[in-house]
């Protein structure tokens, strides 16, 4: 620990930090564009200039390490004047097309101008004209006019993904960031470039022009796409938005968590959010010749009675439950209590999504959010023959459509024909819809709360971000209500309390 | 009692004022009747449907969307008017414009005049000077709510 | 005998049509005068076949509207009393007309016809009595509506009219002391004589204070602004709040009829009635010499015209007052009546008596 003085106040901080990091630790913001906590500091933007006593010139806070007894001024007149000058230089070539810029509202250049700038434009020269629609990746557009050459993107590709597709071309005022020889950025983390760009130079085609950022709200959640459990921010349309729009979620950005995902998420997790709003099952449906909307109470009554009868007839083994691997720990526990403990003899098997390719950074091979969580309980996950499992069952409950990835759908439908009652609890429409009698809408991850255990064994809690769409309910609620109607309620409560 | 008497004096004064107004106005109204063109004496009433008041230069009336030289609307769908609108009557959806100089254009631009309070904030917020409220059209009554919903084409057409 | 009845009937019909026509015109005058006073134009849209005539058809439009509006009787109210109240009010206002002389008498053949519906020797007392009975319309109307606010309005009206009735009556005592009779035509005739040989002996010259008190008390009797506390349409809720349609119209017309009658009374009692200065049954005889001899029919026409002009002037004045003053507060109203007008009329009586003794 060493002593430093910032703006006349004494602080004790760890050794080896830069001035910017140290002042951030004690709660003093120093404006910056090019500094990023996960990247090597380069000092190209000159925004973080601070005054150090005894040093004649202003110094870069992002790359000057602290020394014992250092006296730093971050708010005095000289520093503020310098910031103003830096902003004026940056804005000299900036097109100021904030009205059509997607970054507007969360743009550092805008924020700092309002905080430190507020000067009148003194340049009489024409702003330089450059390529505004430069495609650098299939999902990214680079606007050369808006770029302030902080090189965050270049450093990200060099240091984090180690692919280095981008570089700075030319010199002086002609310099710009570009790909080499028309080779687009094709790595799985390119979406992060739009996040780390402090201005609107790199914009995401998926989000481009969809909505202005100030209409969005963000809440933390966990990415359910793979077993990594990356922390994400879900950007959804603010409830105060006065118009009815079908789309609720507009983009997903990483939430920094050094233990799991650092500051990044992969493109797979970033762009796979459309399932939250599209193709959702909205109401409980019952097939009676054709699909008809029923109320939840009717469903609980029907299936509860079936379970009750099967228990009375001592035919528990006729009940089969097929669970996917993306439920929360709490839901697995409820399943365990419901079926394994209260109705011993029932069979629960799990089927996850098929494994995908892993990259060597965040994305894992296992594309199920909570295989570890399910593994704690007595669910069978052996390579059993699904057709044999379904044979002679009277009641089958499916959680999710994952089973169809593992068997021939033709064979499955034939096997299901003999089963009296088939129930599907799923959030989205899928191949199983045509094969079952009861279709119940469950919530997606963003609409429920619970916890996931990721592949590293870290259990993370997440909370409800959006209101459930339509009549959908979380699985845990469905199971609890069903337990009430199945004649095992007393047992269920006792077991749960004991657990 | 004396106070009441003083009041009475004031009452007489009041009667005098109204009587004065009466006879002066009768005089000027008579002059008007026999054909003199007097505007500001007599009555100041404007007989609305027949005569109309001159609309002030700084008035705010029906919106219009200005166009570029090629006839496309100037609006770039920045949604600032939608953001600033206190009565939430403007709705915009954006799309990509093929011209890289313009980039963004509205695919939907709806002003619901049945909600509009004519505050003019949208005009002030517009960074492209695309929206103005200077059409002099103030008689906007309709028998049908749907007719009060102005879309992009209609707003551009007003401008022409 | 039959002829007499016919003549009386014709006189009644003529008198009432005169009154009602004037009432209609007065509603138009009220609108237009207020407009002109306030630099406006006033109602001018009512038209028949595109003909507007300064909005003169507005009263007709009003009447049609009144006729066709729903006649609503509030539930739990006394239907009979509720219905009779406006008629009482209107009746007692109109009947006062009977004693007012429009001119001197005319002779057709051997028949002498007075231009007055009934020539009664208690004319003045009759008028005062009928004015007082008008209270019944107000209090019954307010009470029968089964609404505490209308009842309060009716009570206010009753108290106001009774209070001003005293001042009204007392202000006339001075006149009665001077004039030889209570019969109105006699009073008018007396006012034709000259004071000092050249000033007409009009009541206003003999009794200026009495005129003043009578005018104010008369305005209060009409229940119009600034004395409209019984009504107070928009603010304090008056006695005819629960009335609609033509019943409401009758109450409204009562006000206008009263305005006309007060004007007629002021004219008759203080401004020489049908008298034209220096006009005698055979023509003008000016005190400074010089005579213009006229046909007696022309004289009669001049007399009736004179009466009507005077009435019109006072109608104008009362409407002007209505559009000049704000409403009195109730305590101010009572103070004015009891603490100013009544003492002043006593002073007037004593003063008149002293002068009569001295002269």
Strand order of the largest sheet of chain B: 2-3-5
Distance between the termini of chain C: 47 Å
Stretches with pLDDT under 50, minimum 5 residues of chain C: none
Based on CA atoms alone, the radius of gyration of chain B comes out at 26 Å
Helix content of chain C: 55-70%
Main sheet characteristics of chain C: 3 strands, antiparallel
Q: Average pLDDT across residues of chain C?
A: 87
Low-confidence stretches of chain B: none
How many DSSP E strands of chain B? 5
Query: Shape of chain C, please?
Result: globular
Helicity of chain B, as a percent range: 25-40%
**SSE topology string of chain C:** HHHEEHHHEEHHHEEEHH
How many domains would you count in the coordinates of chain C?
1
What is this structure, in a nutshell?
By secondary structure, chain B is an alpha+beta fold. Chain B has helices at 2-33, 80-84, 121-125, 152-159, and strands at residues 64-65, 90-96, 104-112, 131-132, 149-150. Chain B folds into 2 domains: 1-45, no CATH class; 64-159, Alpha-Beta Plaits.
Supply the key terms:
heterotrimer, B: 160 residues, alpha+beta, Alpha-Beta Plaits, 2 domains, 5 strands, 31% helix, 14% strand, elongated, C: 359 residues, mainly alpha, two-stranded antiparallel sheet, 11 helices, 6% strand
Describe, in plain words, how this protein is organized in 3D.
The complex is a heterotrimer of chains A (499), B (160) and C (359). Chain A has 499 residues and is of the alpha+beta class. Chain A folds into 3 domains: 2-92, Ubiquitin-like (UB roll), CATH 3.10.20; 124-209, 2-Layer Sandwich (Alpha-Beta Plaits); 285-498, Rossmann fold, CATH 3.40.50. Helices cover 25% and strands 20% of the residues of chain A. Chain A is built from 13 helices and 22 strands. Chain A is elongated, with a radius of gyration of 28 Å. The mean pLDDT of chain A is 90. Chain B has 4 helices and 5 strands, in the order H-E-H-E-E-H-E-E-H. Chain B has 2 domains: 1-45, no CATH class; 64-159, Alpha-Beta Plaits (2-Layer Sandwich). The longest helix of chain B has 32 residues, at 2-33. Chain B has 160 residues and is an alpha+beta fold. The longest helix of chain C is centred in the N-terminal third of the chain and has 36 residues, at 2-37. In chain C, helix 2 crosses helix 9 (245-270) and helix 9 packs across helix 10 (296-322). Chain C has one domain (74-358). Classes of the chains: A alpha+beta (499), B alpha+beta (160), C mainly alpha (359). Chains B and C meet through helix 1 of B and helix 1 and helix 11 of C.
């Amino acid at each position: 620990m060493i002593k430093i003085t910032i703006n006349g106040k004494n602080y004790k901080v760890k050794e080896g930090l830069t001035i910017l990091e140290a002042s951030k630790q004690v709660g003093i913001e120093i404006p910056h564009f090019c500094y990023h906590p996960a990247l090597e500091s380069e000092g190209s933007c000159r925004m973080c200039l601070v005054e150090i006593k005894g040093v004649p010139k202003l110094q870069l806070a992002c790359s000057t390490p602290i020394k014992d007894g250092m006296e730093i001024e971050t708010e005095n007149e000289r520093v503020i004047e310098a910031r103003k000058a830096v902003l004026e230089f940056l804005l000299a070539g900036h097109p100021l097309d904030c009205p059509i810029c997607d970054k507007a509202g969360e743009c550092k250049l805008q924020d700092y101008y309002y905080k430190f700038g507020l000067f009148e434009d003194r340049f009489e020269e024409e702003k330089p004209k450059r390529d505004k629609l430069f495609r650098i990746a299939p999902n990214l557009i680079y606007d050369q006019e808006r770029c302030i050459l902080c090189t965050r993107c270049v450093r990200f590709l060099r240091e984090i993904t180690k692919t280095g597709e981008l570089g700075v071309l030319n010199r002086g005022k002609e310099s710009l960031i570009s790909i080499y020889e028309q080779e687009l950025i094709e790595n799985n983390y390119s979406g992060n470039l739009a996040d780390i760009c402090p201005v609107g130079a790199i914009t995401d085609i998926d989000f481009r022009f969809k909505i202005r950022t100030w209409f969005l709200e963000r809440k933390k959640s966990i990415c359910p796409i793979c077993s990594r459990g990356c922390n994400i921010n879900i950007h959804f349309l603010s409830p105060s938005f006065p118009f009815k729009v079908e789309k609720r979620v507009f983009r997903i950005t990483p939430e920094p968590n050094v233990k799991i995902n650092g500051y990044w998420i992969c493109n797979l997790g970033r762009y796979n959010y459309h399932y939250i709003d599209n193709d959702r099952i909205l109401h409980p449906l019952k097939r009676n010749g054709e699909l008809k909307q029923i109320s939840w109470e009717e469903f609980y009554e029907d299936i509860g009675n079936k379970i009750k009868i099967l228990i009375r007839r001592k035919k528990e083994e006729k009940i089969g439950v097929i669970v996917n691997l993306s439920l929360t720990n709490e839901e697995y526990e409820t399943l365990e209590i419901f079926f394994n403990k209260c109705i011993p003899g029932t069979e629960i098997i799990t089927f996850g999504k098929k494994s995908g390719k892993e990259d060597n950074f965040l994305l894992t091979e296992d594309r199920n959010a909570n295989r570890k969580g399910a593994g704690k309980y007595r669910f069978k996950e052996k390579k059993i023959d699904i057709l044999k499992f379904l044979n002679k069952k009277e009641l089958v409950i499916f959680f999710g459509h994952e089973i169809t990835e593992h068997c021939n759908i033709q064979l499955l439908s034939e096997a299901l024909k003999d089963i009296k009652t088939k129930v599907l609890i799923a959030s989205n429409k899928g191949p199983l819809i045509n094969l079952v009698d009861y279709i119940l809408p469950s919530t997606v991850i963003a609409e429920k709360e619970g916890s996931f255990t990721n592949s590293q064994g870290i259990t993370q809690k997440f909370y409800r971000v959006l209101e459930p769409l339509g009549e959908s309910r979380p699985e845990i609620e469905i199971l609890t209500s069903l337990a009430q109607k199945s004649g095992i309620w007393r047992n269920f409560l006792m077991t749960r309390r004991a657990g | 009692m004396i106070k009441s008497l003083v009041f009475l004096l004031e009452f007489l004064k009041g009667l005098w004022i109204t009587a004065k107004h009466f006879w002066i106005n009768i005089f000027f109204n008579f002059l008007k009747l026999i054909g003199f063109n007097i505007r500001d004496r007599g009555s100041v009433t404007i007989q609305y449907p027949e005569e109309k008041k001159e609309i002030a230069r700084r008035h705010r009336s029906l919106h219009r969307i200005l166009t570029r030289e090629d006839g496309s609307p100037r609006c770039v769908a920045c949604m600032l008017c939608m953001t600033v609108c206190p009565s939430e009557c403007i709705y915009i959806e954006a799309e990509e414009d093929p011209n890289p100089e313009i980039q963004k254009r509205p695919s939907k631009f709806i002003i619901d005049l049945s909600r509009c309070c004519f505050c003019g904030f949208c005009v002030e917020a517009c960074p492209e000077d695309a929206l103005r409220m200077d059409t002099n059209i103030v008689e906007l009554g309709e028998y049908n709510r749907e007719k009060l919903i102005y879309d992009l084409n209609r707003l551009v057409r007003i401008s022409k | 005998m039959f002829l007499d009845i016919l003549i009386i009937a014709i006189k009644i019909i003529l008198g009432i049509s005169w009154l009602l026509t004037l009432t209609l015109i007065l509603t138009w005058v009220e609108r237009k005068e207020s407009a002109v006073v306030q630099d406006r134009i006033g109602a001018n849209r009512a038209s028949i076949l595109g003909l507007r005539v300064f909005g003169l058809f507005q009263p007709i439009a009003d009447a049609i509207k009144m006729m066709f509006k729903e006649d609503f009787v509030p539930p739990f109210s006394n239907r009979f009393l509720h219905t009779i109240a406006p008629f009482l009010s209107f009746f007692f206002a109109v009947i006062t007309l009977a004693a007012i002389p429009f001119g001197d008498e005319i002779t057709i053949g051997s028949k002498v016809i007075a231009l007055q519906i009934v020539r009664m020797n208690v004319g003045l007392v009759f008028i005062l009595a009928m004015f007082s009975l008008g209270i019944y319309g107000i209090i019954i109307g307010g009470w029968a509506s089964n609404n505490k606010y209308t009842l309060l309005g009716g009570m206010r009206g009753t108290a106001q009219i009774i209070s001003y009735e005293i001042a009204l009556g007392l202000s006339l005592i001075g006149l009665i002391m001077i004039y030889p009779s209570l019969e109105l035509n006699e009073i008018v005739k007396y006012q034709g004589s000259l004071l000092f040989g050249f000033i007409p002996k009009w009541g206003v010259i003999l009794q200026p204070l009495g005129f003043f008190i009578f005018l104010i008390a008369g305005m209060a009797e009409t229940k119009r602004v600034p004395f409209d506390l019984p009504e107070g349409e928009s603010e304090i809720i008056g006695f005819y709040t629960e009335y609609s349609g033509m019943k409401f119209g009758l109450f409204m017309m009562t006000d206008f009829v009263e305005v006309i009658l007060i004007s007629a009374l002021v004219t008759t009692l203080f401004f020489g009635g049908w008298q034209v200065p220096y006009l005698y049954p055979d023509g003008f005889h000016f005190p400074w010499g010089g005579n213009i001899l006229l046909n007696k029919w022309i004289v009669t026409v001049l007399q009736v015209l004179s009466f009507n002009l005077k009435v019109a002037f006072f109608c104008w004045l009362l409407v002007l007052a209505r559009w000049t003053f704000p409403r009195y507060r109730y305590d101010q109203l009572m103070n004015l009546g009891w603490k100013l007008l009544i003492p002043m009329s006593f002073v007037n009586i004593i003063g008149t008596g002293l002068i009569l003794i001295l002269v």
